[in-house]
Structures are given as structure tokens and as C-alpha cells.
């Protein structure tokens, strides 16, 4: 599930695909599936990287790409989808949901994946209003909420980040450093489809300096390719539990106090690494899925709020 994109797609009629452990979708096996015309407004205004008409049958052909350079190309279909809530068995039936039948798919995908469920704000994303009644299920802390910020120039979900604290140090940046600007630049995105949290270069350098000044370990200047760009500290396996400064994201009305495992990673090759990186020339901040581990995150679009609570996600 990816809150940073809008298209649901799965592999079918594969020409070039990545391996998956179960059969690809066969749309002919569904009595309700049908193709989407290239004259359909979705095909014309769907926000794809590229879309158009297939030769011969005027079906909608799409190409969509992602930040990690993954790409899917295929045809658009629509069908009836049934979603079941794991906790209580409640079922939601959604007719005529549009999805991509990915025929040419390349990029970074896990061994148990068959596509991407894009639940962003734009077309053709399906969004469901309301808050689930089991938000407190498996919760290990208090429920917090913060306002979602709408960017008219983007379909991403934005938050109002006010500041960052590393251990004893509040970084010397006020809310303006993370604010959404009138031209649509800047701002802070929360995205379940991006792995790591990143900050503009000046903010990131300040964060690095705060960690370096508070961690009593030498900095590893020769990270392996897996952790290139991350701040890592050289440490022996016996000292891998060395205390690390807290990392807190101060949001509008909420403080996201990240548990250690959501921003610190240990490997024998690189030591203790802070799993946050620089956004480079990008003026946006981004909260990625590594920082959202074991956090029940709810997008309440009816009230334009994001709710989050520490939880045992494997038990939900």
C-alpha cells in the first residue's frame, strides 16, 4: 500500500514482469471485469506518466513511474473489489474500481509483491472515509492526531511539521523551514511507499551535527553501498545497544516520539546508522515507512486528520 501514489495495479498478461509467488491476475476469469476506454476521463486526466489509446481496440494504455525508478506499463480495467477488515470481518464492496493490469513491470519489488495499491489523494485512487472502530486494538501508547495539509499542486498527503528534537537539542529551524509554500514547493509529506525519512540539506546537516555531538562513538566515514549517505557510528557487536539520542518530530498538535528501532539500524559492516537521509536539492521533507514501523496510521479524510498510535502491527 502506497499513500504517495494513486494507481492500484497488479501484474497480468505479463510480457516483462518481476517474479511473484502466486499466479498473475487473469481478468477473463472475472464476470465483472472490463477494459477502460482511452476516451474515458480517467485515461485522459488520471495523472499517469503517460497514457493513450491501444492500437485496434481503443483501450486505455498507461505508464506510471515511481521515485525509486520502478515502472509499470499496461492496460486499465475496472472490476468489483471486496475488502475485508481483518479485525472484525466487516466487508466493503466497491464496484467499478479502476486498476492497472501491468504487463511490463520493472523495479524494486519484494518476493511477495504483485503490484502496488496507490491510496493517494488523486485520480484514480480509491479513498474510504471514516475511522476504523479498532484503532485502539494492539495499541501500546496514546492515540495522537494532527491536521492534514492540502497542497493543490500535489496528490500527496502533507503534514504541518513544526520542528525536530535530537536528544537534548531542538534543531535551530522553526516551522517555516518545513512549511508548504504558495508555489507548491516545500512542505512535509508522509508516504508509506518511500522507505526513508529525508529532510532538506540544511536541516539534515544540523540533525547530523546534533547526533555526532551526543553519540560517544566515532563516525564511520566508509559506509558500504547499502548505507551510503547515512550517518553511521563505528561500534563493536558487544556495544550495539549503545544509547542513542531520542528523535522527535514536532507536528501540529502532536509529538511523534520515534522508538529507537524506527530510526536506528545496526549492521556489523557499518555499525549503528541513523536511518534518515538528505533530500538534496528538494525543499520537501518526507516521513517514510521505516519511521512508521509498528505504528497504526489512519488517514481520516472526512475530518482531514492523520491519527497515529504505537501498535503491534503484526497483531492487527
User: Average pLDDT across residues?
Assistant: 89
Beta content comes to: 35-45%
- How many strands in all? 22
Radius of gyration: 21 Å
How far apart the termini lie comes to 16 Å
Query: Low-confidence spans: pLDDT under 50, at least 5 residues?
Result: none
Give me the secondary-structure category. Answer: mainly beta
Number of domains: 2
> How many helices does DSSP assign?
2
CATH class of the largest domain: Mainly Beta
Q: CATH homologous superfamily of the largest domain - what is it?
A: Acid Proteases
Order of helices and strands: EEHEEEEEEEEEEEHEEEEEEEEE
Give the overall shape.
Answer: globular
* Approximate helicity band: under 10%
Write structural notes for this entry.
GO terms for molecular function: aspartic-type endopeptidase activity. Belongs to the peptidase A1 family. The chain is mainly β and 316 residues long. It has helices spanning 41-45, 201-214; strands at residues 8-16, 34-35, 50-53, 60-65, 71-84, 91-106, 115-117, 144-149, 157-159, 161-166, 169-170, 188-190, 197-199, 231-233, 247-251, 254-258, 264-267, 271-274, 276-278, 285-287, 295-300, 305-310. Helix content is 6%, strand content 37%. A hairpin with a 6-residue loop joins strand 3 (50-53) and strand 4 (60-65).
